[in-house]
Amino acid sequence: MKLQELRRRCRETLVLSSAARPEYSADLIISRRLGLGRAELLYKDDEIPAQACEGIFSMTAKRARGVPLSYVLHEAEFYGYRFKVGRGVLIPRPETELLVEAALEYFPSGRAASFADWCTGSGCIALSLLLENESLTGIGVDKSPQALRWATINRGFHRLEKRLVLLRNAEPAEAPVGEGSLDFIISNPPYIPEAEMAGLMPEVRDYEPHMALDGGAGGLFLYRKFFESFPRLLKSGGLLLLETAGEAQICALEDMAPSEFVLMNKILDYNGIIRHIIWR
Ligand code: GLN
C-alpha cells in the first residue's frame, strides 16, 4: 500500500472512533513505526511493505479501542526527553515537568546533590533531573516491580546506570537510605482520592495502574507516611518537593505538615491551579 493511502485509512479509523486528535495520532503512529519525520509524511508516497502496514493497522486499532497513545507508541515525551512506557507504569504528565523545573532552580546544573524520587514510575522525574544537572546522583524508589522494569529500561536508554540506583520499596519508614543523607526528596505520589477513582476518564481509569493513582482517603495516604519518615532522611536544610491534586489537597497538607517544615514555594500548573509544594 502507498503511504498516503495508509495515512487516509488510519485517519479514518481514528476519526470514526472517539479518540482525541485522530489525525495527529494516526500520523504519529505511522511516523514512529516507519522511522520517518512527521513532515516527510506530507510529501512522500512510497510503497509501504505489507508487514509494516499490518503493524500500523494494529497500533491504530488499539488506539481506536481507547488504549492511550503513549502505550500504543510505547513512548512518552517528558522534559524534552524520550521515555519508554507501557502497561503497568504511569504515563508522565506535562504538569510534572514544572516540579522538575522547580527542583532545578534549587539545584541548577553543576550543583552537586543527592536525592530520592519516591514513586519513580517510568523514572521520568529522576532521569530528567540527572540529564539536566550532571552533578546530581539519585535513588528512584517504587513499590511496583512492573514500574521498576520501565524505570530500568529508561535508565539504560539514557545511560544513567552509574547515577541512579533503583530500589523496590513500599514503606517510607523502611527506606534503605542513610539518615540525613539526602539533599532533597521529590515525589509525584498517587494522590487521587479513592472516592474519585471511578470518575476518572476511561482512558486513565481503564489502562493506567491504579497503584500509581489511588491515594486512599482524600488522596493523602502516602503524604502522611512521607511526613513521618522523610525528615530524618534529609540533611538539615534539605527540601521536600511534592506534586498534589490541587489547592484543596495543598491546604490539607499544610495542616498535616510537621511544625519544623518551612514553606518555600507553591507552584501553579498550566491551568493556574496550585499543584506543587516545596518545604525546607
Ligand atoms: N514519577 C512518575 C511520574 O511522575 C510516576 C508517578 C506515579 O507512579 N505516581 O510520572
Automatic annotation (TrEMBL):
It catalyses: L-glutaminyl-[peptide chain release factor] + S-adenosyl-L-methionine = N(5)-methyl-L-glutaminyl-[peptide chain release factor] + S-adenosyl-L-homocysteine + H(+). It holds the Pfam family PrmC_N. Its EC number is 2.1.1.297. SUPFAM superfamilies: S-adenosyl-L-methionine-dependent methyltransferases. Keywords: Methyltransferase, S-adenosyl-L-methionine, Transferase. Residues 104-192 form the Methyltransferase small domain. It is an enzyme of class 2 (transferase). Gene3D superfamilies: DNA helicase RuvA subunit, C-terminal domain, Vaccinia Virus protein VP39. One of its GO terms (biological process) is methylation. It comes from the Bacteria. Residues 6-73 form the Release factor glutamine methyltransferase N-terminal domain. InterPro entries: DNA_methylase_N6_adenine_CS, HemK-like, N5-glutamine_MTase, PrmC_N, RF_methyltr_PrmC, SAM-dependent_MTases_sf, Small_mtfrase_dom. PROSITE patterns: N6_MTASE. GO terms for molecular function: nucleic acid binding; peptide chain release factor N(5)-glutamine methyltransferase activity. This is peptide chain release factor N(5)-glutamine methyltransferase. The lineage of its organism: Bacteria, Thermotogati, Synergistota, Synergistia, Synergistales.
